[in-house]
Amino acid sequence: MNAPAVGLHDAVKSFGREAVLDGVNLNIAEGRFIVLRGGNGTGKTTLLRVLGTRLRLSSGTGSVFGFDLIRQPGEIRRRVIQVSVAGGSYPMLTAAENLGFAARLYGVTVDAGAVLERVGLAQVGGKLVRTFSSGMKKRLALARLLLPGARMWLLDEPYTTLDEDGRELVDALLNEARQRGLTVIMATHGDARPGAPQPDAVLQLDGGALSVLQRRES
Amino acid sequence: MASNSGKSTGTRPLWLTVLGFVTLAAFLVGAWYALVMAPTEVTQQELFRITYTHASVAAVALAATILTAVFGAMVLWRGKPIDDVRTVAAAEVTTVFLAVTVIGGMIYSKPTLGAYWAWDARITLSGIMLVLMVGYFVVRGMIGDPLRAARVSAVVALIVAAGAPLNRAATSMFRTVHPARSADMPAELQFVLIINMVAALLVFAWFFLERARLGAIEARLEAEREGLEAGSSSVKEVVNV
Amino acid sequence: MEAFRGAGDLRAIGVILMKDLRQELRSRTVLTATVFFAAVTLVIMGFAVGGQPDVLRVVAPGVLWVALAFAGVITASQSWVNELEDGALEQLTMYPVPRATLYLGKVLANWIYLAALAILLVPVTVVLYDVQIGGRWPLLFLVLLLGTLAFSLVGTFYAALTVTLRARESLLPLLMFPIIIPALLAAVGASTELMYFADTVKAFDWLQLLVAFVLAYGVLCTAVFHFLVEE
Questions:
Q1: Number of compact structural domains in chain B
Q2: CA distance B138 to B152
Q3: What digits encode the pLDDT tens for the residues A151-176?
Q4: Are C217 and C154 in contact (CB under 8 A)?
Q5: Is residue A57 assigned to a domain?
Q6: CB contact under 8 A, C220 and B158
Q7: Residue A178: inside a domain, yes or no?
Q8: What is the ipTM, given to two decimal places?
Q9: Does some domain include residue A95?
Q10: Partner of C83 for a Cys bridge, out of A121, B184, C89, C123, CB 3.0 to 4.6 A?
Q11: What is the dihedral of CA C159, C165, C166, C170, to 10 degrees?
Q12: What are the chain B neighbours of A62 within 8 Å (beta carbons)?
């Protein structure tokens, strides 16, 4: 039997005195689509960053696809793509160059033109990201999800700053991910969208504790 | 780590108190020898007496920077709280010893070499190492998260220790007007130096052990306090999706 | 199921290096900041020491390397500031490449900037400080390369730490300068020998120290870099 996509045991992450994650026990099976809810500053981003190996737990253990967060972070990073709120692009490079940079570091070749076309940036592939609106920057960040090879997506507020067209793009990407059996964990504020797939579970973070708001009936 | 019940109750264990008295005795004996028993040195006379302490403290301080780095390496390798406690304790005592070296050097330098700071190899080396060790505490203070502060400052401790041999080479190629080395000293003066060396080592060891003991208690109290704050609802829901 | 292959170590270093160079070529931030700063330093120091030719000749190597040290702070700081906008640094640490490759790619970029600056500054120093170098150019060139590499190794390392903190402008020199003292002494010492006393033996001693510094810190900083960018 395969290891779960995510396994967290008594996970605690404190910043100074404040425990943002306070004893989280979580198991997520592979291929699930999980939505994470909670007000500002409740730790959704922290949880995503812990799973992406960007943050170290203060105590407790965790694994992604069976790889330990502390001992085997490299293996985890080879299987996970994260889209953060800020996007992570370089203003002084073009959209195509940004994408090419990411592709090369992931060790994959990519048809930048086709990918940018898919996210609606075909016309501005050769323009500096410095000239982009925040919605365009978000589309460029989403383009990274189209690099072949990921097994899990960690999405932090993917819908923000996008117009309706962009939001439908996210819905489409989520549906594709579902079909391909990717595990997706998405933190979001907004209401559930009709075009998006129905999540397997909606979780809530509050006061450092994780609870289930809603489960999909199977 | 010593499984000594004294450390968990907060009172100083007997062996440490005994060591404290031994250290005090060594210090007094060393001082007695340096100030009274040692024959007056030919060229520099009474002022030379500071050398016994100064050279001892300087040597221990320099070696202690390596010790601090060793504990820092443990923090990076193992990450147990006691490793960080030991690193900080070593860093603190090392910094004090380096400061004493620099001040002693300046006191000695003014009457003998004519200036408080003669930019010669050894005093400059101690001065550089002192500034580097201060850097350890500066970095520690800069980082809010205590776990990260421990790891990053441990990295600094390693960087600082790597600087010891490099700075030693650089400063000795730089300029040397430092007084004669201990190898040139007559036997009876060497004896006094050795006593003071032992005393300096004991003083370092005692202050380090005491400081580490207090740090460990502090760390334990902190952990208990956090456990109390967090653990009220100790039954955490397990979420399986 | 699949996984990303990730880039090989050397390839990753190359990718980071090319990205940094490309950013700099377009924005020219480092170029403008360092060239003007270093040139101004040389001129001001000339005034500050009184302008006497014999004094100028003595202090020339020291002033040159101090200017390069300050430029080292600027280049190192900027190379990480480039990552702050739009959360690029966060994304950078997420790629399946060793964190050390991020460090080494930037070290190389900063080395290129500093070495280019050094080569530019030598004729300026020759003119302003009335220095003769004669036939010892190759060795001096080597000293320039090694010294700037030393500054880049230490600066890039500590800048990764200070870039996320508030007082970063004052903190980086405070942390970096004491560490580079052996390299500074060696670079100035070697440059002095090569510029005046023609004592190539002594220059080689200093050069050895410089090589030792670069090797020691090159290995150490690369090995422990990942602790700096973890949280």
A1: 1
A2: 11
A3: 999 999 999 899 999 999 999 999 99
A4: yes
A5: no
A6: yes
A7: no
A8: 0.91
A9: yes
A10: C89
A11: -30
A12: none
